[in-house]
Amino acid sequence: MNYENMLTEVYASLPEKKSSGERFEVPIADAFIEGNKTLIRNFDAICQTLRRKPADLAKFLFRELAVPGVMEGGRLLLQTKVSDRLINEKIGLYAQTHVICHECHKPDTSIESHGRSAKILICEACGARSPVLV
Questions:
Q1: How far apart, in whole angstroms, are the C-alpha atoms of residue 15 and residue 28?
Q2: pLDDT digits (tens, 9 = 90+) for 49-84
Q3: Domains parsed from the chain with CATH numbers
Q4: Does residue 106 contact residue 70 with C-beta atoms inside 8 Å?
Q5: For the chain, where are the alpha helices, taking DSSP H only?
Q6: pTM to 2 decimals?
């Protein structure tokens, strides 16, 4: 039996890939603790997936985690030890409240500012508008 035939048999015996059926999945943070600080290496990629400004997501995480931090290039540095489980929970919460439409549950949204503190989540799919807490 040659290599090509063996490879074909192996691929045939593999189970089918299962997906949730959703086209949008909340990104998972690549975070690690360095000394007494926590670094999120893929922070820029998370912001691009969520289609939000890094400053907005960073501000949300600082407030929710009650920890100071700073953005360094495409990374986010938190000034204390935070578990990656907690960081991913907060990113999921941000996606539910600031990214996913409350009416049609699609991620095709944008945030529009009205004044200093009023922000509105506008769905590009269904046109729904809903207020967002700042």
A1: 25
A2: 999 999 999 999 999 999 999 998 889 999 999 999
A3: 25-99 (3.30.30.170), 104-134 (no CATH)
A4: no
A5: 3-13, 43-50, 54-65, 84-98
A6: 0.80
